[in-house]
Structure formats: structure tokens, C-alpha cells
Amino acid sequence: MPEISTNLLSQRVLDMVESATIKMAQLARELNEQGKSVISLSLGEPDFDTPQHIKDAAKKALDDGYTKYTPVPGLVELRKAITNKFKRDNNLDYSPSQIVVSNGAKQSIANLALALLNPGDEVIVFTPYWVSYYEIIRLAEGVPVTVSAGIENDYKVKPEDVAAAITDRTKFVIFSSPCNPTGSVYSKAEFEAIAEVLAPYPDIYIVADEIYEYINFTGSTFSIGSLPQLKDRVITVNGFAKGFAMTGWRLGYIG
Prior knowledge:
The chain is α/β, with parallel strands linked by helices. The chain contains eight helices and seven strands. The chain has two domains: 1-43, no CATH class; 52-254, Type I PLP-dependent aspartate aminotransferase-like (Major domain) (Aspartate Aminotransferase, domain 2), CATH 3.40.640.10.
């Protein structure tokens, strides 16, 4: 595409900040290409290849003619499989009509931000956070409200700090568990304590980013959406990139 003068770009694009992880990854690639030995700690990239049975299935799908337009929310067979996964692994009950497949979990989060946020709506984000949350919210003309989830509390937010951040403009809260970038994992009891704080605010949604679900060394995971008192307000984001080493496939989903 041609070079576009910055004075022709929209203000929302000009206001965006480049992803630090992407910038670091590109620098690491360039240095490696120059023959320098660099260990990149930027992108969340598994160090193994996509499992062979997945690659074989993709090749077979191509040979079988799966190259046409699909339904907008994704193939029905795939959405049914995702509902089965949600039930089996997360105790979440969805129908295929409640699942939308996307070009990665990042696009799922961007889609819901654009769908839910009006200018000036607030989104509570816990620090440290994945860098793209902030810019996605701003792109959707929302206002990120940061709340510390620091080392003094094992990088988990305190319920009282969540309560203090809620205003009449709060539209949703983002939870990342297992957390990118800290690795913290919330327990059922910890989510229940947060649910008590959110109970008086039925119009506030909870976005559960569970993309790192299978990269977890604690031995347990719990999906906040499985709490009965919150299940109708939780939007769960996941994908195949991390757990199945499919980062380049760009395949995520939301329910």
C-alpha cells in the first residue's frame, strides 16, 4: 500500500501507542538476523510447534474444500466443539449461538470493546496488564481505569480496590487468569470475594481473558463465569494460540 501522510490519519490512530511487546519482538528478530544471540522475552510464544494431528487436520480440511466463506460467527461444528470444551473444562454453559470465532483473542477483546463502549465509558484494568488492553479501550473511545494488583498481594487485586474504582460510568472489568504478564491465578474463593463487590452493580460486565488457561503451573484453574451469581454477566475470551502453539493461526473465540 502507498505511504500515507500522518495528517491524513484519523486522530484515534494517531493517539494509539505502539505495542511494546511487538516492538521488542521485532528488535529481537532484527538482532538475531544480524547474527547476534538474543533471547526474546516479549511475545507469549510457546517453544514447541503446533501438534502434528492439528496440522494434519488442517491439511485434510483444505483438501476437502473447506476454503469457502463461513458463517460470520464461525463454523457451526467448531462452535459446538467450543461449547463442549467450555462445559468440560470450565463448567460454563453456552449454546453454539453464543459463541463467536475470531482472528485471535485480541480481536475478540477489540470486538467486545467496540460493541459495548460508548465514548467516556470506563473499563477497570489491573496493573501490571497486557499492553493491548489499554489501547483497545482507548480505540473504542473508552477510558481505562487502572487498579494496582501488585507484588504485595501476589499480583492479585483486592476486592476493596475494585469497589473503590467503580463509578457510574464503569462498563466492564477485565480479569486475566492465568494473568498475562504476571502469571498469577485467581482461586474460586478469591473470585467469590470479588463477585460480592460486583453483585450490587448488575449492569457491569466482567471480561474473563483465559487465553493462558493451559500454561499454568499452579495445578488448578477456575473460571469466574462459572459462579452462578455472575454467569449472566461474564464474557469469556479464549483461543488456541497459547495452549496449542498456534499463535500464527490467529484463531480465538468468545462466549
